[in-house]
Amino acid sequence: MTGTGGMGGMTGTAGTAEGAVTAHSVASSALSGGPAEPPPHGLGVSLPAADADAKTQGTYPYAADLWAEGLLWAAVLRSPHPHARIVSIDTADAARMPGVRAVVTHADVPGDGAHGRRVADRPVFASDIVRHHGEPIAAVAADHPDTARLAAAAIAVEYDLLEPVTDPEQAFSAEPLHPDGNLIRHIPLRFGDPEVTGEVVVEGLYRIGRQDPAPIGAEAGLAVPRPDGGVEIYTASTDPHADRDLAAACFGLEPERVKVVVTGVPGAMGDREDPGMQLPLGLLALRTGHPVKLAATREESFLSHPHRHPTLLRYRHHADADGKLVKVEAQILLDAGAYADSSSEALAAAVSFACGPYVVPHAFVEGWAVRTNNPPSGHVRGEGAMQVCAAYEGQMDKLAARLGLDPAELRLRNVMATGDLLPTGQTVTCPAPVAELLRSVRDFPLPALPVDDPEEQWLLPGGVDGAGEPGAVRRGVGYGLGMVHMLGAEGTDEVSTATVKVTGSVATVICAAVETGQGFATLARQIVQEILGLDEVHVAPVDTDQPPSGPGAHSRHTWVSGGAVERAARMVRTQLLQPLAHQFGMSTELLSIADGKITSYDGVLSTTVAEALDGKELWATAQCRPHPTEPLDDTGQGDAFVGIAFCAVRAVVDVDIELGSVRVVEMAVAQDVGRVLNPRQARARIEAGITQGVGAALTENLRTTGGLVRRPDLTGYALPTSLDTPDIRIVKLVEERDVVAPFGAKAISAVPVVTSPAAVAAAVRAATGRPVNRLPIRPQAAVGAGAV
User: What residue stretches are annotated with the Aldehyde oxidase/xanthine dehydrogenase a/b hammerhead domain (predicted)?
Assistant: First the structure.
């Protein structure tokens, strides 16, 4: 690949080596024993995931399955209080218990022990102040997991209880909960003329709950001491190099003496970014000289990892008599919980996208992220963007009702397109087919109405055994338009490195981009198949001996890591074809590779890749670095984002206005994807995102009372089941390629999560006429009928 554009920041090295390499890959089992004719491969086909068979058969190795000789088991003592002063910690009884090998507290952490991916404000173990329910106090290693748990419970901690700050609005006037204060970030966005007003003004107050990532497998890990005094940590990390550097700092070791090996990740949407489990594990392994394993309970998982930011939003929309937006005013308050984590980035997204994918000439937004004694908040798909989408779409429904306009028509009068400005002053240079998306879902046929028949009672919102009556059911249709940014923002240096090796007719990809369920491992195989024409492609396991590739967030691996793999594969292709092109007196562009064979345009040359290699190994290493961004300035202005993806969703719901129960009948989706690289995988990601959004709209809320998490389990936290999942109709995927992105592809997973809760809320408003302004929607909000 040559040229600049979005790939211009890539660099690479290449070389050849005699001999063969052993390819390590989770793909090997899935690729062996295939049909005689090679299946279709390359970009644009539905290549199955390499680990699909192992996962469905239950043989795929996750962190909870790991074992080592001389294994000890760990348990963590966590605070039962959301806010308290630690008077004393007595570990004597725990240390004397038979089978206990070590007990560690803050006193065993080198230095101040503060850590954090973005802000080093969180201790490994609380030393003087407990700031949230479930904060780690101490950890134990023992011969048996039950012994470890009993020993942790035997640690005597004397607390002086403090009044918790649980209302984020109180955080501004409360005593500082942290030496850094309660305010994490404030963004005042100023765009246009503050004196401008519209002929029609609508206001709204919106509240978004605390959604948990609820991973299919709770956190687990294994730490193994090294002969050099270092440690290896085997865990489901989404950013192993950042975890390694953070752990090394907390252990008082050089980074090269800490190695993080990524095990099977049972899905990740931010929950794997909490190092609060890896750090106690490493400390215990270093202290005991034995491998130490920890498998968190579901309760510990809920208490420890980050959740979606609960958010309070106040909005005022101004429009003219025709429904054209004139000005948007908003206040956005994110509850970060006890520590900063990714709250600064979430706030930047919330403020920047506060007006949605609409043209707004004047915008004035105040955004804050504050510390409280609530559970920690952090990166969850579409953070910041999801919360504001629910609010600005609520405002659009209010405005449509006030003007007597169809909600879809009002939106069409205001949607943005390529070349329009965000309220941050950044020009939308990528494809922005928002109007096309909205028209597609609007014009898609509506589902049939349920039949008033006993055999069709399952169609009632209450289900088969529900107490509802068909006469109390109202149907509603609502729309949501959403947007998310891709890659990091505000000056984040996005870079990834990949190596492609070819030996015989087998290619191996070495890249530290973690497969978290987003499909990168499958995509990497498809890229190499497309460029080198080889069917058998392996993706090496990830560890920190490889060059860094960054975190698996904002669909960045499709762009940055996929771009690095593409660059490296093209460099290998050039190495392979140049000798043949020189021999036959033609350029490499006149040669093609397919199904393991190299042929020339005129048919004179025809040979296999293995014959062309002649026993040599070819390899190349390349980097991808997209064009830089910049931080938002003191007025919220700046080119903060590399790219943006858009989505439109139409929700159809049935609401029992007597019981307040809601059934989502259908979700019609149209999405701006740039280019579909794997149709089956793209569909699965959209369906998963819609389902997660339905959960946020109707059921998912990690509830707290006075900072204490109520029922931190999968009974108290209501995830949507297959019976709650609606029919999902993917109406249209707009493949207008983003010229600065590798392959032209855009993010797929996050934007349906952002948009679908707003669409469900809009549909419930349409069915009931009530001002639904809280997510998840409570039954009392859907009871009766009223004016919006």
Answer: 57-163
